[in-house]
Write a sequence for this structure.
């Protein structure tokens, strides 16, 4: 086409040159012809490079899903970018869609979070994997609505599973992850081979610590004192903090100290996760059940932590247990506390130094405190270990007469109070309980997203 245009203009030039009086006009048209050819060529090249539709089937999106795009270039090309993190927990699957802004060579800033949760957890579909797809697809639609279409192929999509899948047999957990990965790979988002995984407990604690310290401003301001993190999930519980003395680093048990790099800084943290000591798993153990094992015909669990007149069916991890309270004897709180103490005996490493640190607590710590009015349900607040103990004694006393709206509340509060003391916190220790800070969920999801984005930036 371009050759034809050039030929057309060369013919016109020859015609005009026959007329000596039209020499100036001929030169003018010759120049315009050259300019037109160049312009047409530039337009053609631009059209060829940029006029591709943005969809999951384009070559660009395919390369994104295969992880072949240079994400460092992608991040620096956009002052606004997104990260999508799925939290596959023991009691539900949650999507966090984070919107970031970043200036060149500066730490990214979080400008917005979109959050949605679905129940039950992914582990509930261990025996019917295809059913897990519906919830994942529903949450992906939320991401498509939130992230601008032109940024889909640049937006990392990740799922990390926690205690729910850690407690499953390996083959069942892997089949669930494979199903999610299959769904992710058909999406228009940026997907690598490591897009789905089971998060180990230490990483979960570290990621939650990153979240809290980023939201409180400690992470980006080295002069600010960092805060510790306590997370009580359904299947596991984590404690993470930055040690203030070398003694803690030297005397901590193997596996409790870990180092990681992020945003050109190295952090050495105390972080440990206790699998099986999350609130729901602990509840099952206190009741006398075994994780993943159904009761025999006619069998029931009898607990001193329940109201003597109470009996019901309780479902945990897709297994239904028949439970009832123990006949009246010694006061409910004392008998329940003895049962909880048996569970915690030699299961938790006590650290005296935590009494000198500031801690944030969330998840079930927050939920149970809000349920009994120790903190504002929306705003959160501060309380002490002793506040949990006083609430436990009061609730247990009232449940000696009738179960109340939450028949497990005596057990849960007693467990929380004794767990904190076993971890090394004195009864006078003050905690900040927060569900959100600056409208962002206080969970490991933001920290894990930061860590993932940072790893892409170093590719």
């Amino acid at each position: 086409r371009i050759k034809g245009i050039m030929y057309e203009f060369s013919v016109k030039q020859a015609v005009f040159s026959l007329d000596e009086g039209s020499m100036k006009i001929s030169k003018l048209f010759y120049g315009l012809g050259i300019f037109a050819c160049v312009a047409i060529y530039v337009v053609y090249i631009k059209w060829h490079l940029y006029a591709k539709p943005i969809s999951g089937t384009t070559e660009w999106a395919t390369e994104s899903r295969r992880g072949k795009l240079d994400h460092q270039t992608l991040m620096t090309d956009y002052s606004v970018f997104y990260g999508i993190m799925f939290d596959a927990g023991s009691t539900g699957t949650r999507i966090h869609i984070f919107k970031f802004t970043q200036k060149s060579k500066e730490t990214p800033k979080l400008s917005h979070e979109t959050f949605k949760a679905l129940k039950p957890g992914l582990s509930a579909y261990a025996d019917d994997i295809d059913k897990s797809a519906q919830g994942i697809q529903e949450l992906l639609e939320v991401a498509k609505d939130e992230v601008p279409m032109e940024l889909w192929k640049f937006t990392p999509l990740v799922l990390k599973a926690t205690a729910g899948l850690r407690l499953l047999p390996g083959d069942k957990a892997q089949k669930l992850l494979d199903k999610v990965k299959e769904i992710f790979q058909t999406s228009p988002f940026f997907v690598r081979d490591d897009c789905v995984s089971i998060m180990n407990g230490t990483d979960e604690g570290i990621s939650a610590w990153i979240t809290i310290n980023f939201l409180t401003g400690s992470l980006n301001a080295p002069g600010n004192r960092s805060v510790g993190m306590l997370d009580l999930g359904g299947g596991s519980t984590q404690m993470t903090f930055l040690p203030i003395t070398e003694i803690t680093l030297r005397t901590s048990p193997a596996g409790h100290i870990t180092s990681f790099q992020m945003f050109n800084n190295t952090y050495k943290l105390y972080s440990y996760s206790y699998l099986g000591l999350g609130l729901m798993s602990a509840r099952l153990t206190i009741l006398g059940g075994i994780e993943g094992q159904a009761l025999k015909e006619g069998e029931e669990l009898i607990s001193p932590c329940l109201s003597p007149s109470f009996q019901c069916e309780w479902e945990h991890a897709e297994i239904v247990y028949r439970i009832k309270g123990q006949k009246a004897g010694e006061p409910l709180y004392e008998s329940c506390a003895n049962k909880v103490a048996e569970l915690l005996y030699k299961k938790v490493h006590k650290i005296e130094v935590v009494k000198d640190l500031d801690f944030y607590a969330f998840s079930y710590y927050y939920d149970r405190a809000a349920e009994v009015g120790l903190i504002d349900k929306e705003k959160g607040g501060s309380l002490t270990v002793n506040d949990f103990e006083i609430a436990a004694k009061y609730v247990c006393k009232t449940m000696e007469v009738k179960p109340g709206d939450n028949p497990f509340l005596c057990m849960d509060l007693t467990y929380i109070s004794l767990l904190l003391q076993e971890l090394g916190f004195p009864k006078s220790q003050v905690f900040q309980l927060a569900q959100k800070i600056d409208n962002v969920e206080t969970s490991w999801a933001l920290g894990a997203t930061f860590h993932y984005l940072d790893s892409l930036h170093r590719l």
Remarks:
- Residues 23-50 form the longest helix (28 residues).
